[in-house]
Amino acid sequence: MNKKILLTIITVSFLAAGCQKAASSDPLQDTESSSVKETQDITISIQSTQESKPSETTMAEKEKETDYMDYFKKNWIRNTDSNFPENGGITFVINGIYNGKLRGEITAVGGSPSYNIDNSQFEGIVDGDTAECVLIDDTRGNEGTLKLTFKSPSEMTAEIKITKKSEDTVMTIPEGKFDFAPNNLKNIEGFEPIENQSFLVDLDSWGKVKFVSGKLTQGNHVPVVFYLTNEEGDIFYEFTNGFPYSVDVEAVSFKDLNNDGLKDIITIVSDQYDGGSGQLIAEVCFQQKDGTFITNSELSQEINDSGNNKDIKTVTSYILNKK
Fold first, then answer.
1. Which end of the chain offers a freer environment for a tag, N or C, measured as fewer CB atoms within 10 Å?
2. What is the DSSP annotation of 291-319?
3. 4: helix, coil or strand?
4. Which positions of the chain have pLDDT values less than 50?
5. Signal peptide span per the entry (predicted)?
6. 273 to each of 221, 234, 245, how far by Cα in Å?
7. How many secondary structure helices (H) and strands (E) does the chain include?
8. Residue ranges per domain, the chain?
9. CB atoms within 10 A of CB 306
């Protein structure tokens, strides 16, 4: 299966808050800047519901309290799964932690050529450096439990037990105790970042993240890819895109295009395939309330067919003036 398609299938998303745009000297690049907006929509630190008198012990415990932000949003990959997802494996993400309750999503991918998938939501209670969870809405109909242990910002342990197996045995999230590490840009074979089209940005429901543009150069075809990461390169979100192979990224813009209070993304590339003409292609992604991004293919095609894709300003004007 095409790597681009497989990654699209298992892409997962997370929530946070904010909005900012990095400046660019590129004439195609929108130079409008926006102020940083700090919000507190999501509570990450977990506080005890039990009242107690201050003491040296409780203060020491508080200092050692797990910083859950270090684990939030990351795509955690099982340590033994090399070249995930092509070779199969397990990944999970923590989507939210609030008032001691945790929710997330776990996915198991089989190996080639079928790449069968079992996916399940999970919810549970956080207690210090562990979380006891149950699997919910498993796509294969399995039921089970998941115990997470927060070891360090670069290490977690997940203990999975399937308590009721479905008759669907094509693919099942495997049982056992496994070590996990965050998926990182450095783990992607052939990935080359495009530094001048990668920006630190406060992106509303994502908070302070880095929008990373890059190319996958290990094969005959060279697709362009886009991610949201932290500054260390841990991957939070992978965008889908409809661009052809072998394009150069010319401009990226982050602004609210449909007045819903969420920043949307305009991307402009130039076609360089086999000595291509450099024809410009624009694509518009609208951010959803859950933090995902959906490409409006019909609008993007309309912009390209009409020639309103020369730069960010032209694309933006076309969208804002469209009735």
1. C
2. S-EEE-HHHHHHHHHTT--SSHHHHHHHH
3. helix
4. 2, 4-5, 8, 12-27, 29-64
5. 1-22
6. 10, 30, 7
7. 4, 17
8. 3-37+185-321, 76-182
9. 10
Token pair recorded at residue 65? 């309290």
pTM comes to 0.73
Q: Which residues pair with 228 in a beta bridge?
A: 211, 237
What sign does the dihedral 40-42-48-51 (CA atoms) show?
positive
Bridge-based pairing of strands 224-229 and 247-255 is: unpaired
Which token pair is 47?
């506080």
283, 212, 213, 219: which is closest to 245 by C-alpha? 219
Distance CA(171)–CA(140), nearest Å, equals 7
Instruction: Please tell me the predicted confidence (pLDDT) of residue 266.
Output: 99
Type of residue found at 296: N
DSSP-derived letter for residue 173 is: P
- If DSSP states are collapsed to H, E and C, what string results for 81-138? CCCCCCCCEEEEEEEEEECCEEEEEEEEECCCCCCCEEEEEEEEEEECCEEEEEEECC
Looking at the chain, list the stretches that DSSP marks H as alpha helix, in order from N- to C-terminal side: 3-10, 56-63, 297-305, 312-321
CA distances from residue 122 to 4, 5, 136, 224, 233 in whole angstroms, order as listed:
26, 25, 5, 32, 25
Is the distance from CB of 136 to CB of 109 less than 8 angstroms?
Answer: no
Contact present, 77 and 57 (Cβ < 8 Å): no
Question: In angstroms, rounded to a whole number, what is the distance separating the alpha carbons of residues 266 and 315?
Answer: 8
pLDDT of amino acid 70: 87
CB 200 within 8 A of CB 231: yes
Residue 189 carries which side chain, given as an amino acid letter? E
Tracing tokens 């008032």 back to the chain, one arrives at: 99
